[in-house]
Design goal:
Layout (H helix, E strand, L loop, with lengths): L12 H30 L3 H37 L3 H5 L2 H19 L2 H8 L3 H16 L1 H16 L3 H24 L10 H21 L1 H6 L6 H35 L1 H37 L3 H28 L1 H5 L6 H16 L1 H16 L3 H26 L4 H25 L12
Amino acid sequence: MLPATKSSNTVGIDDIFRLSWPIMIGMFAQTFMGIFDVLIVADRGTTAIAAMALAVPWSFMPLLMIEGVLRGAQVLAAQRMGAEDRAGAETLLWPTLRLSLLIGIPIALLGLTFPAIALWGLDSPELAKLAGWHVAIRLLGTPLRGIFVGMMGWLRGMGNPRTAMIAQLSANVTYVVLGAALVRGWGPFPEWGVLGTAISSVISWVIGAAAVLWAVRRELRRNAPLGNAPEVWAIGAIGFPLGMQHLFDVAGFAVFSLVLVSTGEAHLAAHMMAARIISVSFLPGYAIGEAAGVLVGNAIGAKDSARARQSWALATRVAIAIMMFWAVCFALFPNALIAPFNAAFEVNLIAHDLLWIAAAFQLLDAVATVALGALVGAGDTRFTLVLNLLVGWGAKIPLGVFLAVVLHLGAQGVWLGFVLEIGLLAAIAVWRIRQHPQFRALEPAIA
């Protein structure tokens, strides 16, 4: 376990990797799951891939919203551990569980309406049926996913990302084994096709929730399950802006998926394939951003602004190095990355262009992801919410829709909108850190 504070005011690369490598492995496993579910349904036809591309953003909107809200527990745990207040950090456990159920149960019930909404909103009955039920099944597991991600975030905030990684890997293995069996109908399992990936997702969250609850069982016993309403509000005060940020981020992808339906299923399928491929680069960058957030939270809890700034600067350098590697891979080997999906020729051509665009924004993404993670660690979540709303809905979506529909660029136009968004996020988030009082170090550190 990484200590909450250090005796010196310096942060080393070992601190970044000690926190980030378990997160990174978990994120790689999550990435593999995303690629895997497209691979196992790819030969089911373009409609099957398009249904998944349409369903995933709509299901992830509420799922990532609750994850963002519960991330407030991670931020508070890191800050309290930085202040050497372990008992105070442990009191966040039961409120995190309560929030998981208070938010998750209504979302699960709301998800049952999606099959009817899809039939009403889409022209293709087959596409509507697959997409609608995929969303409904996944949302039924929202309370369990809330417990799973909430407890993992708390463990990371406590400086124990390894336990969170083990729980995540147990869920990932469950998903892969069951996903293949349910999609293909292997052994005693029925053949559910693309809906098998949704069913296996929910079962994997059951396993993940059980694993993290077992890991924190002693801390749960030491703390009272009731009388912690102030802590619920404290988590929500930090986490609610993050939850709304996640909601609107994924809503943007959902809007783009609907736009791409009008440009043809090939554009939607290529968008889905390319998004899965580049998640290999995005999620390690996210892990470095999470590590930066925890280290910044520790430093701020210890009232050490110099260490907070240094944590952000060093994490930025590490993220740039990692994502530069992926930029080269996307630029030089797009065909090799696309080939395993065995998609139609037209889909492959579009996905090839999308990977070239992705290569162009990798370094900007590294800077933006770490800067936003550092701001979250500082508790500045309202700013990150406003920034993401203004940039995403004020710049990315209008430009992407204009290029995709008016200029008939399809998925390529949508992804050019991503370039504008990420560039603006990187520039403004770095400016915010340089102006933020909790990052004003006596010794300047430049990322």
